């Protein structure tokens, strides 16, 4: 079991996270990377890095042969799989052992036992762990599943037996909706996990999602490290996680912890694992699944226990006993984590790609940012859109929440679109602040999705002032010395200069003129007197006497601003330039790079607004492409199996008059 070199078979923030702990332990580290990831931070952090493919996961991070070849090439004695990719692949764990290497994780038998939801549920029932009523039978025909659904009752959940993360999962309210849900869940499950096996479960309406962190060694010791509340979810994917759970009591923690430990013992578990439960308002809880790996949200447990879970994983893999007993586990304060995604909440949370023009993570007491990006990097369409995790710890829940809101605002990423404003809004919401959010929280608060915020004239005015000052500073650098008291001076009154900004679909007409103290900017009917000081990307402004701080990135005629949690992008429209207006609603374009899985319409077909036109797979999820107008399909310009670039025209619709 002894090893001095460890290969991390992953990418992004978790690869960087594992490499840091391994280096702290004195181990040599090996990263694997693709062409798309060659500038990623995990590559720079490792002692050695091995190229394993161009970009697509099937030919790189999911290719076990390439991973094992990289381990042989570098003399690695162990492989840490991180999470996702091959982390819960029992065949990969077996291949690692067969190659004479140490797999930093549980035995293949435990992965296999818990990796299939149907089999895991049968095991848990036998072990006396409370389970949700459902169907986990071998007969996977539609007829068998429909009969089982009648016995279970509605609403119910359709779930992929082999996976997690919300993929292959559908909520079904009525019997008529079940056949379509089965078909789409099978398709998504097969694409994500290589298995289309499904289970059914009675839907527990608006429970909390509470998971228990367990740890076991090879000497028969199994403990739990408390719980995490992961109830704030969108499409069954976690958005906010915290420890401890706001409604947890010592007695309930003891019962849930004991059930989680029994679940681990039932499969002779070793290493870090998570047993997930649904907790209802009465205090009853039901086994959901066991993740046989480190979780994305493990930092909140680390911050309240003071333990390094990755270091514990490595120690257990080397044969060491657990460093503490159950009675020695201590909890200190409260920790909350949010996931920063490359996605557009105002556009149905669709994942996006784009450059990282500026990345500056928050710093401060109780703040931790685990990131998988570096400034200058390009966000690829091949991988999960999570870019970073922002975590805050405090003596109380409210202290941690306040710190986290500020940390979300201060973690500035400009270039691609992110969910920063959405995260801050969730953390500020009164229901989350009160600790009463359940898994239904986001659907209740944002039933129509996260609202599109209008650009405030003051933000546009600040962008104008930043552009004007940037232009002036560039001109002064070319002109030579000009004294400060001459800036903004003229022997004759100067007429305000007119300019036009584009902010997404919006066209903003503005005027600007220099003053002795800064700039006078007009946006619509509003007038702003702006004093502006810049230091690098930092803007310190006084706007109509009110202090405003922002972060800016200016490139030519484009200025991006971070003001609080809001992120804005403005482009100056030069005289004679074409306004790049979006195509009319009858032209349907790919909202992101992706693979066409299905075309649902044909030329000449009539469609109404909201009809599904096609299904696009991108960033490991399926996305319904819908009609934004009613009309007749005049042309289908793509085919099933085609890889599309963002903005590529897919379908043309002649809009109804």
From TrEMBL:
Its cofactor is biotin. CDD domains: biotinyl_domain. One of its GO terms (molecular function) is ATP binding. Residues 121-318 form the ATP-grasp domain. Residues 585-654 form the Lipoyl-binding domain. Keywords: ATP-binding, Biotin, Ligase, Nucleotide-binding, Transit peptide. Residues 2-447 form the Biotin carboxylation domain. The keyword Transit peptide applies. PROSITE patterns: ATP_GRASP, BC, BIOTIN, BIOTINYL_LIPOYL, CPSASE_1, CPSASE_2. NCBIfam families: PRK08591.1. This is 3-methylcrotonyl-CoA carboxylase. It comes from Ruegeria marisrubri.
